[in-house]
C-alpha cells in the first residue's frame, strides 16, 4: 500500500512517521489516512480533476524514495494490488508532469499577462471611443454641481418651509407663499434655484408613479400632498371630504398591516397601543375639530428612551414605541377650524378635490376610455428592466435610452393633445356630490353616450348625457324649493365656463347694489323708488348690456340647457330603489308637512318586500340594532324614522352596514331625517271613494290653502306653521254641528299649531267663511272658478243640516283632494287663497332674493373667486372705507351735559338717551370688528369664527351676524294700564301738519301692505296693481277709557318691520271699510313702520 502513501503526498495529506517493517524490509504504509481519503466520496473525480499546477519540487523529492524501490512498478503492483495498480503509474506521471511543467509554466504566465494586457488595451480603446462625447457634458455637470452646492442652503430652506407651512393651503396660495419666500431670499441675498421644482427635489419620479398606482391623483396638488405626508416631521392630518387621501393611505400601507380606527371606536385605545408596540401604521379616520387627549404625547413625539428602546405615555400608561409606527388622521369636514394647539402638533394637509384636480382626474378617465391604444405605445422606459440594469454603462445604451425617451415624449405629446381635445367634456360639471358617486356617474355617462369616430360629435354626446345625469341625480336629493335654484346655478356655471356670462355680470346678478353707498350714488330719479331698487339700478348701469335673467329664469334655463331641465325632477322611489344596493342607505329628508313613510311602505308592498320600521329616539337604539340584525341576515327593508333624534347611533349604523359580512341581497336600509344637523354623519350624506263628500273636499281645499299661504311670507302667515297630513286626517274624522266644525278647525286641529293671535284670527275667519250652511248651496265657491264638485249621490244632503263625515282612509282623502283637481287651473292666483294679486309680486321678489342669496352664500371662498383682486384685498379696502365713514364715539359726559340743557326728565329725552347708548354699542362693535378684521387679514391675530363670518358677509355685501344681532334687539314696549288706544286717520300728509293736536299725537310714515287707502273716503280699498305698499296719511293716536270697539272696523296690526313677529308688533289701529272685516283678514292687511 506504499502507492497510497504517494497519493497522500500528492494530495498534501498527512502521512505516518517513517518506520521500517522488518518482515517486508520496507516502510510501514499510512493505511488509516488512505482509507479516509478513499471513503471521503468522489475519490475518482478528485483524481481526474487533480490540480496539476499545485505540484511543487518538495513533493517530488518526497516521492522519489518510493520510486527508487525495486518493487515500485506496474507489474508488481498488478500482482499484489490488482486494480489499484493504475495509481502507481498515475503518481509517476504526476512527477514526470512536474519536471516538464516547470519549464513551460513561466511561458504560460507570460502568455496570460500578454492576453490580459491586450484585453485592457481593447477595453481602454472602447472606453475612450465611447466617452469621447462625454467630456463636454461632464464639464457642464461639474460646473452645475458647484452652483447647486452654493444654492443648496436656499433650496433646502424653501423645501423645509414648504413641508412645514404649505399643507393647509390650496395650490394657488401655495404658489403665493413660494413667491413670497423667494422674494425674501432675494432680499437677504441667499442663493436658490430660480426654476426650483420642490416635488422633484423632495421625491423621485418612480415613487410618484407608485403613488399614482396606489390611488393618489396625478395632479400637482395631490403629488405635493403626498410629499408632505411622507416627508413632514409631524404626523399628518388630512382634510379629506372626498376620501381620496384616505384611499391612497390605505393602499400605500396595505402591506404593512395598517390598523384602521376612529376616535369614537370602543377599542380605540387598544388600537393605538397595539400599533405603537408592534410598529404598525395607524389610520384614525373621520376625526372632528378636537382630538383625543390620549394622542397628545404621541403627536408631540414625547418619546422616553429606555435602554435601546423608546416609550411614550398614552394616558397614564407607558407603551413601547417600535420602529415602523406611523400615524395618519383624516377628517371629512370640508372647512374645519382647528385650534392653534392642533395645528402645531400635526401637519394639516388639504386633500380637498379642487376643480383643476378634478378636471385632471376626469381627463385621465376619458383618455383611458377613449384612447386606450395610445397609453400602450411601445417605448415604456419603466417596463424595460434590462435597459435599467445596463443604463449608463455604454454609449450605445445611452443612445437607445435617448431614442426611447423620444418615443415616450412623443406618446406623452399625443396623450396631452387628446386630453386637451376632450377637455370640453369637463366644463359642464357642477360638482355637488361625493367624489365616489360623481366618478360613478361620470363613467356611466361615458358608457351610455352614443359613440362616434368624430371627436367633436363624441364630445357633444358625452356632455349632453353627463350633464343631465348629474342634474337628475343631484336634483333627486334636494328639497323642492332648491331644485330650481340648483338648475339655475348649473346653467349659470356652464355659461360662465364657456364665456357667455362674465364673472362681473354674475356678481352683479347675485349681489346687486348692496355694497354701494347711497350717498355716493347719483340722486334718485323719483322719490317713490326704493333705496335698494335704486342701488341695484346704479350697479346694473355699469354693465354694457343687461337682460333680465332672473325675471325669465325658466326661459333662460330652457334656452341654455333644454326644456327637460325646466320640467323638474320628480322623486321616483322605485327608480331610487333600483339604483341602490344592500350597503348603500337611502336617506330621505323630511320637509314641512311631508313624510315619505307611506310611499316607502307602499313601494315595499308592490315589490313584495317586508318593511319594518323603528322610530328613533331615546332608548330606541336597542330596537334598531335588532331590526338591522334580522333584516341584514334574512332580507327585507328596514326603515329608521326621525334619525335626527338618534345622531349618536348613526356612526355605529354606518359601520354596521358597510363592514358586516354576508348581507342578504334584498336588504335595504331607508332613513328619514330632518335637514341634516351639523352633527349628522357626513358619510351618510355622500342616498277609493264611491261618492263625493262636499265637507271632505272643503277640508282638503282648506288644507291646500293653509299650506300654500306659507310661500307668501307675512302676507300669508305671520309664522310659517308646519301643517301636515296628520292635521288633515284628524279633521275629516268628526262632524256634529257647524259650530263644532269651525271650532275644531280653528282652535283644535289646525288652530292647535297656531301661536300668533292674528294668525288665529285668520284661521277662524277661514273656518267661518267656508264652513257654514252656505257650503252646500249652489252659489257657494271658494273663489271664482273654484267650487265644490257636485254629483247626484249628494241629493240627500240638505242645506242647513249638520254634516256627518265618515272616517276615511288617507288614500281616499288624497284621491278626493287630488283627483278632482284635474279641471282646475295649472297656476293658482293668490286670490284663491284670499290674497290680492300683488301678493304674487311679493312672493316672486322673496323667491328671487332667496335664490340669489343662496347662490351668493355657496360661492367658493378661495382667494380670487375668478376676479383680479383677492377677497381679502376687497374686504380690507371696504374696512378702510367704512372706518373712514364711521362716526366718532359718543363721549358720555358730553351727552349728559347736552341732555341736562334739553331737560333730562322729558319722556322723549329719556328715550333719546337710551337710543344714544344703543347706537354707541353698535358703533363700538363695528369699529372693533373692522379693526380686528384688518389685523386678521394681515396675519397679526387669529381669524376667529366671528371675524371669518364678517369677512364673508362683507365680501358678499351682507350684514355680519354679530352686527345684525346687536341692531335688531327686541323692544319690550310700554305698559298702557287700562287705557285703550284709539285712532283717527286724517286726510293730511306730513307736509300739511303745522302744529301738534290738542290731544294725543300725530303719527306719520306708516305704510299699508295688502290693501290700498281711499284718502277721500278714509277707508280701505283694494291695492292698485303692482303697488305693494301704500303710504298712509297722518294718523292721530290718542287714549280713551271706552273699551267698546266697532265690529264694522278692521283691526289692523302695526309692525316695525315686514317680518310680522311678536318682537316687531306694536299695536293695532281700527280702519274703516265698506267690505266685511273678514275680507281684509284673508288679505293679510297690516301697517308697517319700515318696508325694508
Description of the molecule:
The structure is a single chain. The protein has 41 helices and 24 strands. The protein is of the alpha/beta class and 1092 residues long. It has a five-stranded parallel sheet with strand order 4-5-9-3-10, with helices on both faces. It is elongated and about 170 Å long. It starts with a helix and ends with a strand.
User: Numbering strands along the chain, what is their spatial order in the largest sheet?
Assistant: 4-5-9-3-10
Mean pLDDT: 77
Write down the overall geometry: elongated
Q: Helical amount among residues, as a percent range?
A: 40-55%
Number of helices: 41
Please describe the biggest sheet, giving its number of strands, its sense, and whether it closes into a barrel: 5 strands, parallel
Give the DSSP E fraction (strand runs of 2 or more residues).
Answer: 5-15%
Structural class, please?
Answer: alpha/beta
Number of strands: 24
Low-confidence stretches: 373-392, 422-432, 547-551, 687-692, 791-822, 863-867, 969-978
Ends distance: 131 Å
Based on CA atoms alone, the radius of gyration comes out at 46 Å
